[in-house]
Amino acid sequence: MGLMACENNTKEIPNSEIYINMPEDGYEVKVNDTIDISPKITYDINTTYSWVLDGSLISTEKDLRLIPTELNKYAYLFSINNSRGIASINISVQSMYKTDFEEIVLEEDTFWTNTENYTSFISDQIQFESTGNYESDEWTGFTYSNLTGSNSDNDYEKYSSYDDPDEYDSDIFGVMLLDAYQHPITLTTKDGEDHLFKSISINNAYYVVDAISNGNNGSKKFGGETGTDTDWLKLTITGINKNGTTRGNVEIMLADYTSGSNRYNTILKEWTAYDLQNIGKVSRLEFVLSSSDSEGGKINTPPFVCFDEVKIIE
């Protein structure tokens, strides 16, 4: 009787399992940066490990270090074998060019004024155009900043992100100085070749949110007094390849009151990543701002947009 009770209480020993804190779309790493991948394993005793890439065994260590030197998608198969059995997991890593301005040195609470009158600047693998400077009557193109929120100098709020980019690697972000007459501003790939842009992160400038929320800074109050005017503010990104062929575009609603209802009125106030892959491989991106608040071909909404983390994957 006692023997049968002992046999009935015998528990099945589970197999070892692999756990890894991998983002849903896989890991990302900048070209020439380092990423260390360290899987967690239950019952990790007398275990053998294998990392397979493209059908070839590349490592028998538990952890893997990758320093990519080019754009690539790495699809690893990580496997373990011990007395509890065999387990495996697919791990993907995308190497990329990522323009996040982290290499730029900028004093606290300021922005690049281009007093030298440069016609462009480069960050990572992207060249940004700039026409004019902070002192000019007209300044279009791109600059960079680390300003967030309101500022005692109202003019500085044009270059201030509504929300702090805490989740990103750098406190510095880019600012689009768009043309009120809807002529495009342009960024180009540094090597002049066609590449696949994965995404760009966008947020409104504090100055713009104040303008459309309260009717300040030359703008009408979006929605009007009742909140039912069908106003909108849109950024259009168009991709053009090195042969001059337009490949596609992406439209981003920075403010959307088109429902005609207070309940559904929205203004972009948080950093948000937008997919650009449907544009295809291009060598330049053009940016145009359009608004329901316009007259005579000119938009009245202040033409400033904050951006960060421009990613290229092919």
Automatic annotation (TrEMBL):
Domain of life: Bacteria
InterPro entries xref list: DUF4465, PKD_3
Residue stretches spanning the membrane: none
Bacteroidetes PKD-like domain: residues covered: 18-75
Protein name: Bacteroidetes PKD-like domain-containing protein
Organism (species): Saccharicrinis fermentans DSM 9555 = JCM 21142
Organism taxonomic ancestry: Bacteria, Pseudomonadati, Bacteroidota, Bacteroidia, Marinilabiliales
